[in-house]
Records
---
Amino acid sequence: MKKTCEYCHKVFTTQDRRQTFCSRQCYENQHTSLKSFICEQCSATFQSNDNGWRANRFCCMACYTTYRRSHSKKKLRHFKCAYCGKRASVNDIDYYAEQRFCSLRCSARYRFEYKNDKCTYGPNWHGQRLKARARDKNSCKKCGKKTGRLHVHHIVEFREFGIERYKEANDLSNLVTLCPRCHHHTHFG
């Protein structure tokens, strides 16, 4: 069977119908030599070897991803952001089951405000906790220890106020800094 080499364009004879190069040298030259292409997304000129369809269509992964998203035939999925409440949408191919936030910023803020504590003491808890530690000079008010890990204790328990009155419960006059040992003794004697 006679074929034409894809690299040097010489005519050669072969028994293998899949063979497209006349020699190993032409094959290696074809796959290691750089050619100029124009990116389909940003129209920038770039050089690449001729390996694969994506390698000679897009200059970078960002262009490929943008192109893929803009040319997707799938629908947009709409959802409400769990932090700010804003309506957001995402391309169906980029959607994942736990999509809850419109941006990375909202996701980070949510994690900081709500997920850091096992129980939620209201939206001002993190700020009040830091203020109580600073007021008490990052030391236990009972034993005076300055340990790396300190707890902030509600003098009158939070559950007596309820979430509706979180501002009263988290008032600095109701908060005291304790080490874990003193905090345990306060609750369990």
---
Amino acid sequence: MILLFEGVNGVGKTTYIRQVEKRTGWPAYSAFRGRANKYDSAMLEKLSRLGVPVNTFVDEMYMTDLVRSLGLNIIVDRSFPSAVAYDQVYGQGTFVDVEETAKIWLDLVREAGMLYVWLRAPYEVAHARCTGVRIGEDESEALEEHYRYWYDRLCVEKMMIDTSLLDVAEGVERVCRALKK
């Protein structure tokens, strides 16, 4: 089972992930790693010097296939929908065929089982909370449109939580109830 948290920077993904991780005992994984810890930083530098693409949706596809194959439970901080959203909003041109790639990912997550949690908050709230990379309001709105697209499209169990309206403890409770934990 994959518990996937999506949303723009500052909506509370890290807070939710840490709380759900404590409650369930499931490990958390970030497909799109940064320089948050020494291991990631050193690994990313080495791979980058070798010309190996890192922080791509491909990393997450392999992780999803591994989770599916081994029947594991895992919490994921962003996934394929974020990769597509950021790619399209920032014009990175990573995807040759988004629809065909999406079909592969959708098949994997259906087989693995997934609870998709889209965390949202008004721009002003998310921007004020953000401790990472801050994005502009236009980019935030465009990313939200992409998250809406994926939320509507996914044929898995899903929920949307406005973190400006719901206390973290209650939101975590809802997520865990959906997981039956």
